[in-house]
Amino acid sequence: MKKCWLNNKTVIVTGASSGIGRGITVKLIKEYNCTVLGVARSEEKMKSLVAELGEYGERLSYRLFDVSKRDNWKSYAEYLNENGIKPDILINNAGILPEFKSFERFSAEEFENTIGVNFYGAVYSIKELLPIILESSTPAIINIDSSAALMPLAGTCAYSASKAALKAFTEAVREELRGRCYVGVICPGFTKTDIFRSQNLTEKREEKIIRAVSTSLDYAVKRIIKSIRKRRELTVIGADAQFMKIFGRLMPVKGGRAVSTILKQSGFKLFDGVFK
């Protein structure tokens, strides 16, 4: 076990059943002897995670609920208080990436669901759990954001809006809690997880290209843990995310237009709902 302030902490991880959240959970338990309180929707996936952890499985417990509903977070806070559970760290990782399509093709329900999970999930969790987190000697809140917060792309209006809101919210809360609680925001680019499950990836060639430009899950998780370990306030992960950070800052209009032109000319069926 590495000598680090993370050692032996009690950590809440949302979206713990798969992808980045699952990777974070495993690493915190196995390498830092943490106790993880997972939050997810799929009991089947959580049971498989417990099985994957083997002898470490006793350090993981979980609750199943929709993070976008404030009442669920109120109930969770009550559960923690009633059972004397004192988490030190909250990692908001739960998120969804809707199908790439133009705003005109989005239903109001799809938009609200994306904003609910990606943004309000973090807002409600912090609102209800902050008093408990602040009781820790090492309180910390980390929001896993996205490169979409750095430069929005055509076809991702709901996703980009939710992630831009999350970044701005986190940065404001960070300043309000400075000196009382470590608050960090992490912006990964495309990562090799199942987040593309909502996309219409029917073409093997398209899937291979998307995977080729995506960061490996193992690398992304390592960078995230390193960022938390070093208490970094903003971390950008992946070559594509770094590109979006630079062009989003230097060419906030023309940068997005250039990328949209490239996507349109690619001829990928993945983007038919955006440009056709």
Describe this structure in words.
This protein has helices at residues 19-32, 43-53, 70-82, 108-133, 157-176, 204-212, 217-229, 239-250, 254-265, 272-275; strands spanning 10-14, 35-40, 60-64, 89-92, 140-144, 182-188, 234-237. It is globular, with a radius of gyration of 19 Å. It has a seven-stranded parallel beta sheet, sandwiched between helices. Strand 5, helix 5 (157-176) and strand 6 form a beta-alpha-beta unit. The chain has a single domain, classed as 3-Layer(aba) Sandwich (Rossmann fold). The mean pLDDT is 91. The protein is 49% helix and 13% strand. Helix 1 packs across helix 7 and helix 3 runs parallel beside helix 4 (108-133).
The CATH architecture term is: 3-Layer(aba) Sandwich
Into which percent range does the helicity of residues fall? Answer: 40-55%
- What would the average pLDDT be, to the nearest integer? 91
- Tally of contiguous helical segments: 10
Tally of individual domains: 1
Say how many strands there are.
Answer: 7
What's the arrangement of strands in the largest beta sheet?
3-2-1-4-5-6-7
Secondary-structure class? alpha/beta
> Radius of gyration, Cα only, in angstroms?
19 Å
**Biggest sheet features:** 7 strands, parallel
Any low-confidence stretches, pLDDT <50, length ≥5? none
Shape: globular
> Quick one: CATH superfamily?
NAD(P)-binding Rossmann-like Domain
Distance between the termini: 53 Å
Classified by CATH, the class is: Alpha Beta
User: Element order, helices and strands?
Assistant: EHEHEHEHEHEHHEHHH
CATH fold field value: Rossmann fold
Strand content: 5-15%
